[in-house]
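Slide 14.
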Amino acid sequence: MIRKSYPSKQPEVVNAKAAAIRAKLGDLYAARLQHYRLNARLKIVEMFGGKCVGCGERNPLVLTLNHVDGYEGTNPKAGSRGGWPLYMKILAGKESAESYDLRCFNCQIMYEFQRGRIFSKIRGETERAIEKAATRNQVDFGRDPISIS
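Slide 15: predicted structure.
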């Protein structure tokens, strides 16, 4: 029996072939790859409604997929966390689109901040600093400073 070798199990072969193609095509390879990735991104943006679910932003350059349930993978090499490989998996039907939504980068950061996934230490320190300043200066941050009552 002849054993068939698969390129995915031989990364050094795949990397050597890719390097040879890049050397032969030069800038054309980079341009085609960039075009390929941009098309995948635009298809994903269209697939998810073309606008941010948070603010309605429609510029595809600032829209990105958000993992609604969060990415809880412990080994980043085990699977794609995001980017164009994820886009390709969704477009090919290998990944369910149900656990993602489309957000602009600003809404993405705010979503993760509100969930406590990023800046959690800074968030706590900021809230404590505001409380401390409010008690020290007797400032009511909930009151409109312009109204006189």
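Speaker note: The first helix runs from residue 11 to 25.
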